[in-house]
Design goal:
- 2 copies of one chain form a homodimer.
- By secondary structure, chain A is mostly helical.
- The first copy, chain A, has 17 helices and 2 strands.
- The first copy, chain A, has a two-stranded antiparallel sheet.
- In chain A, a hairpin with a 2-residue loop joins β1 and β2.
Chain lengths: 340, 340
């Protein structure tokens, strides 16, 4: 108070990413679910216990911490976002008939489809409850953040729907693909950062810049994930290579390869896409050979670099001392610098 | 204004149920869904266009109208509740593998399971958006109403889970059954009324009494629905008779019949429950004969009367001129006086 009244800048305590991650995990562990009905809440606890990097709540806390240091006051919002994210994983796994999630059987494999649908519904409601009922901020601030949250939750549904539709379409454009991954992946990262800023009562301009930082970072991250699916080292990447090629996923690389290919390459690529029976490794090798010939890896890497640079430029413009933003810069680099 | 300053009681305009129903249907028709992705929003429009009596939003508006007459100001809340209710129907139909809903094929029969799951998720989010973003009331009032809404949405999940679990249990007690139907059916009616009162800034006591009115009315309604499933006239009831008997649903009647039956009747009833192959009509006739011998119809009717009377008593205690409450009284009678 005294310092403030003499016009001296109050120093925020800046939390490390690890400390914030601990806070998120502690808060997630402390959620008091009703004991009954056991089979409604057990799948929720299970899904949230599978771990993960808790990227979204940590980003929210880091954005908030740029402006204020009472990060505990928005922990319920942070775990609301993580609960929401895990709800999308739970329902996506049902829709994709996935078997495993983070090395363990998916909820619908353990409890059945109906329990997975219903528990997912309850999780979405719990996320809204954490975002509203347990919110400690002023109503005006809450309502702003809530609007951003709903923009994200609806947008992710849109993205998932496009993703499903593109599976059976062969004329997906680059613009359509980029918009789909923006909705399905980037939006929630962008909104995590924006909500953090909004809850800290930051200016609209700073909140929007953080949103852009997250949005571009998310796009870069997803394109890199696509690239690793083709060129990654399975041991480092953590999942099988070539999955996107096998299911003809219309990624940035496939879409652009079809554009850049010569007539012979295009015919060959389309034959692989249309072939119903094939040897998995043979298809992966053949498609990768065309990608190499076309030089799609360099095109994709250039796009990733461009998006990543745009992302960091937006962060630079946030009206906060540069050293405070180092944590977010480091976070972005960590996210991107996966070896392949 | 002048009348007020002379201490005269300001007269609310009281809207008829039909007029409120029109307002609800108009507001539902006016919801501006995004044009894309078409296959995400088409199922939502379809589900909401199947009609129905819009009981919950109309009850909310009627409760609000007891205290204030600017009912248009809470239309978004009212259609939020209807959107939420239709979301539960959509997902329940997936879980129950239902074929038809209000005479038309269920969403999952038209668009497939995945679209039904995802559109349902979007509907739940839209319901929260209508309840928050488009809310025209003061933040304090919104947050009170929102808490009641979330109590309902989570409770209905609990109820659905119990309903699923009780299908495979033979030792469901009367208390368990009553709690299940309270959660699955009554709670949303109770909360519709309570939210209406809360948005009108009514006293907590009046809001709670309206909640009780809805809760008891809902229980009476559900027990009557169970009774009609056994003793109703198919032409009036609108669906096949005996469905609960065929699937051994542990209703108030079955649970109490097992309690009240003599040894021979109990053995016979249990044999029907355990029999895997049977003639549908024969089973219905046989179980109904035991019900008749035990006198379960009278027991159930007495319970319905008791709950209905409790319901009206709670309404009577709401601190509003009696004639204003006539609309809600009429509504309750309409709901109950289905012929059988």
């Amino acid at each position: 108070m005294l310092a403030d009244s003499f016009g001296e800048k109050k120093q925020n305590r800046m939390y490390s990413q690890d400390l914030l991650l601990n806070k998120v995990n502690e808060a997630l562990n402390k959620i008091a679910y009703p004991a009954q009905p056991e089979n409604l809440y057990a799948p929720i606890r299970y899904e949230l216990s599978l771990g993960g990097k808790r990227i979204r709540p940590v980003l929210m806390l880091m954005a908030y911490n740029l402006f204020r240091d009472d990060v505990d006051s928005i922990l319920s919002n942070a775990i609301a976002l993580e609960t929401y994210h895990n709800f999308t994983l739970l329902h996506d796994d049902v829709m994709d008939r996935a078997e495993m999630r983070r090395g363990k059987p998916c909820v619908h494999k353990v409890w059945g489809d109906n329990a997975a649908i219903l528990s997912g519904d309850a999780m979405l409601i719990l996320a809204y409850r954490l975002m509203t009922e347990y919110n400690q901020k002023e109503p005006e601030v809450v309502s702003k953040a809530l609007k951003t949250f709903t923009e994200a939750t609806l947008g992710v549904c849109d993205g998932q729907q496009y993703d499903i539709e593109y599976e059976t379409r062969n004329d997906v454009t680059e613009a359509e693909y980029m918009e789909m991954i923006r909705l399905k992946t980037s939006l929630l990262l962008a909104c995590a950062l924006k909500i953090g800023a909004q809850l800290a009562d930051a200016s609209d301009s700073d909140a929007d810049l953080l949103y852009q930082f997250g949005e571009k970072m998310g796009l870069a991250f997803q394109l890199q994930d696509d690239l690793l699916d083709v060129y990654g080292d399975p041991a480092v990447f953590g999942k099988k290579i070539g999955g996107d090629i096998l299911c003809n996923k219309k990624t940035y690389m496939l879409i652009n390869a079809l554009q850049m290919a010569n007539e012979q390459q295009r015919v060959e690529l389309n034959q692989w896409i249309e072939r119903k029976e094939f040897d998995a490794n043979e298809k992966i090798q053949a498609v990768r050979a065309i990608y190499d010939a076309v030089g799609i890896r360099q095109v994709c890497e250039a796009k990733i670099e461009e998006l990543f640079a745009e992302s960091l430029r937006a962060l630079d413009l946030v009206d906060v001392e540069s050293e405070k933003k180092q944590g977010l810069r480091d976070f972005a680099h960590q996210l991107m610098h996966r070896k392949y």
